[in-house]
Amino acid sequence: MAVNIFSSPREIYYGAGALKSVTNVLGKRVLVVTDSGVKAQGLLDRLEGILKGQGVDWAVFDRVEPDPSRESIGKILVQAQDFQPDLLIGLGGGSSIDAGKAAWVLYENPDWVGLSVPEVSQKMPQCVLRQKARYAAIPTTSGTGSEVTRTAVVTDSTKVPPFKGAWTAPQLVPDVAILDPELTVTMPPSVTANSGFDALCHAIECYVLTKPSDMIDSLALWSARTICEWLPKAVSNGKDLQIRERMHVAALQAGQAFTNGSLGLVHMLAHILGAEFHIPHGRAIAFVICPVFAYFYSTRRDRLVDLAKALGLSGADDETAVQALIDFLNKLKLEVGIPLSIKDSELREDQFVSGLKTQIQGFQARLSVLPPMMRSMLGVPDSMEEVQAILDHAWKGTTPALR
How many domains does the chain have? Predict the structure, then answer.
């Protein structure tokens, strides 16, 4: 049997009031990376209130943007180089945690500062970390799982078209994750729904694409079942701490599943929509997941059927079972307030068509360097016409026939 490795933070603190556990991991100089929304909600104040009296110096970068760009990472880096922290804290959603991770990479590897997003991606196996600082992640949304993953997503806005690149290495898993559901109760319903669908996709796309594994499958299926049950409750009753804690833990475990397993076509297409049209990532996931799963029917049928059964969905045969899964996902979208189609958003069709044309050309160029085995693992079609067809279905909110 093959020997596998499972990556995870050294410590995970979770439960109401877990934010206070940050005192267990403090160094002498702390740089907090966050965004204006977290600051406006008073969550940064709560963290700073704990830092006071702990005998540490701290600084704050609170200008993280959605889909953080290489340029914004550079601004965090400048502050880090000036302040010289021995602990970085990412406080916020996936953008803040990923931005902090990316700045951490450059802070510890200064020779990479002038490199482009794809150039850093290529060097990540040689990434050296923890020579200057450790990393703690404190999520305020229940979606990305970035607090336990080995990846930081960085947008390269200098390219035409812009694209999201991944900086990935096992050593990029944060040292500590702190899950406090009290930090998530201010999430509005739309953010709860979008981030929840992202977490759900982490679980179910990972399950469908990853070869069977007891460790990964158990995490993926538990988190999928939990999110399907509790996400509608979180959207309708976001002040309930029990509901929020369920979603927070499920999102983390979905993150543990996919960072040790695999994601593929669903996330790749969602990144296209996010980079070009600035559609929130979880919503972009919701738009493409059903057409992609219909496409997977020809190559991942057994795993789709097993997933449907694990979620309590059944059919007289494989086709009806997988169709029941797709119908369930569409019903869940509507239940949490996500439209079925991209055309139901504010995007015009001419914008969609023109933007997509450029993005697909870039997508094809990036795929051309991947070996066939890697493309197969990611579930990527052989032709761009099939990719275009999937995105056309996402625009219309339809699903191709299973075949």
Answer: 2
Please give the distance of CA 274 from its chain centroid, rounded to a whole number.
12
How many of the other CB atoms lie within 10 Å of CB of 320?
A: 16
C-alpha 82/C-alpha 100 separation (Å) is 15
Closest CA to 25 of 82, 76, 84, 90: 90
Q: Which amino acid is at 110?
A: P
Q: What is the pLDDT of residue 90?
A: 99
- Indicate which CATH number applies to the domain containing 200: 1.20.1090.10
CB atoms within 10 A of CB 379: 21
Query: CB-based contacts of 319: which residues, under 8 Å, 6+ apart?
Result: 297, 402
Shared domain for 161 and 216, answered yes or no, is: no
Give the pair of three-digit tokens for residue 75.
């601004």
Q: How many CA atoms lie within 13 A of 141 on its CB side?
A: 31
pLDDT digits (tens, 9 = 90+) for 251-269: 999 999 999 999 999 999 9
Domain range enclosing 122:
11-183
Asked whether the beta carbons of 177 and 291 are under 8 A apart, the reply is no
Letter for the amino acid at 206?
C
Q: What is the pTM of this model?
A: 0.94
